[in-house]
Specification:
The structure holds 2 protein chains of 2 kinds.
Chain A: H1 5-8, E1 11-16, E2 20-27, E3 30-33, E4 43-44, E5 47-49, E6 55-57, H2 59-67, E7 72-73, H3 88-93, E8 108-110, E9 113-115, H4 117-136, E10 142-147, H5 153-165, E11 169-175, H6 176-187, E12 192-199, E13 204-212, E14 215-224, H7 229-248, H8 256-273, E15 278-285, E16 288-295, H9 296-308, H10 311-321, E17 330-334, H11 341-351, H12 364-377, E18 384-386, E19 393-397, E20 401-406, E21 414-420, E22 430-436, E23 446-453, E24 466-472, E25 478-484, E26 490-491, E27 493-497, H13 503-543, H14 547-550, H15 554-570, H16 576-589, H17 591-607
Parallel strand pairs in A: 1-10, 10-11, 12-17, 14-18
Antiparallel strand pairs in A: 1-2, 2-3, 2-4, 5-6, 5-7, 8-9, 12-13, 13-14, 15-16, 19-20, 19-22, 21-24, 22-23, 23-27, 24-25, 25-26
Helix pairs in contact in A: 4-5, 6-12, 7-8, 13-16, 15-16
Chain B: H1 4-8, H2 18-32, H3 42-62, H4 65-75, H5 93-107, H6 114-145, H7 148-175
Helix pairs in contact in B: 2-3, 4-7, 5-6, 5-7, 6-7
């Protein structure tokens, strides 16, 4: 079937993963993944800055991660929407190079350049956008991007910022397990209660949904945004590093390349262990060898604490959904880490049913995002997602206690209104502190933003009446509006996000990214012109041996030589226009030659034909 | 205050068919959800956001009998402020006193209080069930005559229920520390 370009209006679905990212779209035949130029459907979420300054993303960046780890970064999703204090644990386990000046927004050092986590994610998104554009042959500027269901407001905002920096209008953020359910429901089931267990590279989500004639209603969600396959890698890596220290008498942990090589060996062993009873971690480095066999039994024992950390959120989710284990019809497994047999058996034990593993756990989220893109474009009109907010939203009240306004697992969009007044005569502004989380005290929750209600008429204390409306939109992102009930006047609400980028910072990054994209585009055009030049140089070389070449006059042959020399002179320039002009000159000079060759070919063909 | 009954298009009342509410909610969601307005002008998208958030708030409130009753009370001008923990219903005074002793012991590491707490958990659980029965009857009574006296009775049951509910969660938290 023909690809229907107009059908989805080129809205793509993107799974921006901790380890791998994918882009998908939906046509009349259903959702499908768009592969990269190398044919790979998975684009590793790795970014590296080549010595030339060129930004490298995906598989080639994964290679550079080994050879130039100080100019490369992976698993940046763990830092999205976080402050430096939040990621202290991450920094111990991951080789993130934090640049100075990271107090308000984390800055990562890659070679001599610095990037915020949203900018790194934007580079991955830009690669996916490029892959889609190469595939369609037209620009792509709208996307649905998936996020872990348990992502808070700041993490969602950071993901949206990344999309904007990459030149994508993010029409919707969809929760990963919900997207998976959408792809699953499309394929397998129309009605019933479905649990989605999503253990990826760095995040864990559990969601329970009710499927009802095309409506996908999330009943509850829970999770841990710092739990995934990465944690297993780090565990095995620590063991291997200790081994190496003992066997080689060498602390490899300070050797960045050595660590990355060992990390890759560990990941390979981990992946093999899902299919074979024993696998070995093998490293050859600077003439030394390390080998250690790990069998399934030991592996299971090692990772049991990590797998068990997923079970608490599962139980809470079942409780919040108001269902019993027996009422859950299916459990769908999502994320690469659900290939691990221990994970499967733990899920089977908890839900007392065999989990579904027939969908590709790496692809199902991106496919679901593509379905949501089709819903938003209007091409699919019989499906609807009703998702929830994962965390309660509240405001700080007297004594640092939280007053909860919107409870977790409320279907979004959701809203709440609260009336505020002044405490002092003549007071003209009120500070409001918004937090997200389930704990009683403000300090135990996550600070989301501080709002300053300004321009209140100076009246007696307690007389002002300002109605503040908190609205969580379908992306799970908060907005606030305020109205003076006495005057009916709308108040300006100045949002100071506790973490994350301001609008101005994002605008600046969009500009920089645009300039960078232009540079990269120019570099690509130069490369393309050189490929063109190579082709024409080769063709002329061949033609020189052709009879037709000798039918040319001396002047004509001299003109060809001159044009070739001029092309060779500009071949290495950075100006693609100049290379193109010289290619055109060769074309002109060889036109007669080409005609002659054509005629010879026609004569040859006619000779062989019996009329 | 937004009239959630009007949003869902159902008459004001306390005993509702949850199935009916759900059917209406699904049907209205298909029409009003922001997903349906992505290709529309900004003003229409904003309207969809407002309407669907009101619809979700309405469904969340009215599908749950306790929230529904609280909402109707506030709609009818009843003050349903937080029940303060020191306002112990008189008939529960003795039981609450003993329970608090047992909770203190358990928190202090004395596991011998466990059977007593488990018994209390069961007892208070029974009270909750009884309150729910009582509410069903009162809901029907209100729907028949829309009497404010009945609403006042409902408020008392809700306050008591809330108090018992808090006790049960305290016991649960103490028995299974998270």
């Amino acid at each position: 079937m023909e690809i229907d370009f107009t059908a989805t209006g080129h809205i793509v679905g993107i799974d921006l993963g901790t380890t791998n990212s994918l882009v998908a779209f939906m046509d009349l035949t259903g959702p499908r993944i768009i592969p990269g130029a190398d044919g790979d459907k998975l684009v590793p979420s790795v970014v590296s800055i080549a010595p030339s300054g060129e930004v490298v993303v995906g598989n080639p960046a994964r290679e550079l991660l080994i050879t130039q780890p100080e100019r490369s970064v992976y698993s940046v999703k763990r830092l999205m929407g976080r402050g430096l204090a939040d990621v202290a644990e991450e920094l111990k386990l991951f080789p993130f190079h934090i640049a100075p000046g990271s107090e308000s927004v984390i800055q990562l050092q890659l070679g001599d350049r610095t990037f915020t986590p949203p900018e790194i994610s934007a580079l991955v998104l830009r690669q996916l956008k490029q892959n889609a554009e190469d595939y369609f042959g037209v620009p792509v500027d709208k996307a649905v991007i998936t996020v872990p269901a348990y992502f808070n407001d700041a993490q969602r905002q950071a993901t949206k910022d990344a999309g904007r920096i990459a030149g994508l209008e993010v029409l919707r953020l969809v929760n990963e397990p919900t997207a998976a359910a959408l792809a699953y429901g499309l394929d397998k089931r129309e009605n019933g209660i479905v649990a989605v267990y999503d253990l990826g590279g760095g995040t864990f989500d559990i969601s329970i949904l009710k499927l009802h004639d095309g409506i996908f209603e999330v009943l509850a969600t829970n999770g841990d945004t710092h739990l995934g396959g990465d944690d297993i890698d780090n565990l095995l890596l620590r063991i291997a590093l200790e081994d190496v220290a003992t066997e080689w008498g060498q602390d490899l942990s300070k050797d960045r390349e050595g660590v990355q090589r060992l990390r890759r060996a560990v990941i390979q062993a981990k992946e093999r262990l899902s299919f074979v009873p024993a696998a070995s971690i093998e490293l050859e480095y600077h003439g030394k060898k390390y080998q250690r066999e790990i069998n399934r039994e030991l592996f299971d024992k090692l990772i049991t604490p990590i797998v068990n950390r997923t079970l608490g959120p599962c139980r809470d989710c079942i409780k919040d959904a108001g269902v019993t284990v027996g009422q859950i019809d299916e459990v769908v497994m999502v994320g690469g880490s659900t290939r691990i047999p221990l994970v499967r058996s733990a899920v089977e034990n908890l839900f007392r049913s065999l989990p579904h593993t027939e969908l590709n756990p790496d692809e199902v989220v991106a496919l679901g995002a593509a379905v949501q893109a089709a819903i938003l474009s209007g091409t699919v009109d019989n499906k609807l997602l009703l998702d929830v907010t994962p965390l309660s939203l509240g405001i700080e009240t007297m004594g640092g206690v939280v007053s909860r306004l919107i409870h977790r697992n409320s279907t979004i969009p959701a809203s709440a209104t609260e009336n505020f007044t002044t405490g002092v005569d003549g007071q003209t502004n009120v500070l409001i502190h918004v937090v997200q989380g389930e704990r009683e005290l403000v300090k135990d929750n996550r600070s989301l933003a501080r709002f300053d209600l300004k321009g209140i008429d100076p009246v007696q204390a307690g007389m002002a009446r300002i109605e503040v409306r908190f609205l969580i939109d379908a992306n799970g992102i908060l907005s606030v509006t305020a109205r003076d009930q006495r005057t009916g006047k709308e108040h300006s609400v100045e949002v100071k996000p506790s973490y994350g980028l301001t609008d101005e910072q994002v605008e600046k990054m969009i500009q920089e990214s645009f300039e960078q994209a232009e540079q990269d585009f120019a570099a690509r055009q130069v490369r393309e012109q050189r490929v063109e030049a190579d082709a024409i140089l080769l063709a002329v070389e061949k033609a020189r041996r052709h009879d037709a070449y000798f039918e040319l006059s001396d002047e004509e042959r001299a003109a060809i030589d001159k044009s070739l020399n001029e092309l060779l002179l500009v071949y290495n320039s950075d100006d693609h226009h100049l290379i193109a002009a010289k290619i055109e000159q060769v074309n002109q000079a060889t036109m007669k030659l080409a005609e002659n060759m054509m005629n010879t070919a026609v004569r040859g063909a006619l000779k062989g034909t019996k009329i | 205050m937004i009239d959630y009954y009007a949003v869902l298009g159902i008459p004001r009342g306390l005993n509702l068919s949850v199935d009916d509410v759900q059917q209406r909610y699904y049907a209205l969601s298909r029409e009003l959800h922001p997903d349906r307005f992505m290709q529309k002008p900004e003003a229409e998208r904003q309207r969809a956001l407002d309407m669907s958030s009101a619809l979700n708030d309405a469904y969340r409130t009215l599908k749950d009998p306790i929230k529904r009753a609280q909402y109707l009370l506030s709609l009818e001008g009843f003050d349903i402020g937080e029940q303060r923990s020191k306002d112990v219903p008189a008939e529960l005074l003795e039981e609450v006193f003993e329970l608090n002793m047992a909770l203190e012991e358990m928190r202090g590491g004395d596991d011998s209080a466990r059977p007593q707490l488990e018994a209390a958990e069961k007892n208070f659980g029974g009270m909750l069930a009884a309150s729910d029965q009582e509410l069903v009857a009162l809901f029907a009574k209100y729907d028949a005559g829309q009497s404010r006296d009945v609403l006042a009775q409902i408020r008392n049951v809700l306050n008591r229920r809330k108090y018992v509910q808090n006790l049960v969660s305290e016991v649960e938290k103490t028995l299974i520390p998270s």
